[in-house]
Amino acid sequence: MSKKVIVALSGGVDSSVAALILKKQGYHVIGIFMKNWYDESVTISNECPWLEDSNDALIISEKLGIPFQVIDLSKEYKKRIVDYMFREYKEGRTPNPDILCNKEIKFDVFLSKAESLGADYIATGHYCRKKESKKGNKKIYKLIEGKDNTKDQSYFLCQLNQIQLSKVLFPIGDLKKTDVRKIAKENGLITANKKDSQGLCFVGKIKLPEFLQQKLKIKRGKIIKVSPDEKIFKKAFKDVKDENYLMKSVQKYKYSESSGEMIGYHDGAHFFTIGQRKGLQVGGFKKPLFVIEKDVKKNIIYVGEGENHPGLYRQGLLIKSNDINWLRPDLKISLNSSEKILARIRYRQTLKPAQIFRRKEGLYLVFNKKQKSISSGQFAAWYKEKELIGSGIIY
Prior knowledge:
The chain has 395 residues and is an alpha/beta fold.
């Protein structure tokens, strides 16, 4: 008897081809579309992409001759993703809902639903690969970057664990995007030329400031422009490897209203993120302005002129002990030890050489070269060659 796989059909080309491949491999395939939003108290967009997407998912299922249904996970989505987003922004952090969405919705709620329907696996259209090995009698599941370097999505799955990895298949991980579209076209799938979805996971494109303003109050505050030659930058970050090296590598610059000149006003510090360029609505400078820090309590935004402003760069970051996730628990480093790894702090960022240091307070991740726009609330992920082995929330 063939094994049962439930595919998370999003209405896009990637999940469509994933379902097609599994069907051809002899699996008993079922397509399920997740409806995750209909809260009328918070408007996501004037457009309603999920209706079109669910219809495309239905058409794909009929084309492939597989059962199809829509499940409503909107209550769980609001509680675990949307409320989390508002809470994080209110506290001055920058969340990554796509990573949490995979952890909490697709590989938790959806996986549980699939198992209740008797599924052996779930499958997604992610560009990444899963490999298995053994350590003694124990199976080890590895999350490997996708073959298509320009589309690799392993970073979005950095919060998964061994149990979740054991239950998932990634049918298109060994394919390039051009190959996926070619397969879709050759098999007459209506999604062959459909544009990739953008924006919030499972919801679509949103205008974030407008979205946040529906729950977070507008609060007028000062914009302070900090000169790159301020004494504040000359004091910090002397890359001397003494006993305080780790603390120095992650410390933030300490700004105050006297750190620069007031050049305008904003509608609320919680609406901005580190490294943000658009939305400041202040002009008249030779180079574009970037947010280099924000003080939510005092409601002040600090900006710097130009993308090479020293305030945008830090050598390292700290992940608190409770926020560390090892996809490979067997590779977890012991207390007071360190290891050289490769790491990234955002999707599609090239992997950068770095070192992790485990201490009582958490995990320090220190890059060989300073990195731009390290933001609290975002996720750092670290790799051994092409395998993602751990991740955590930046403190």
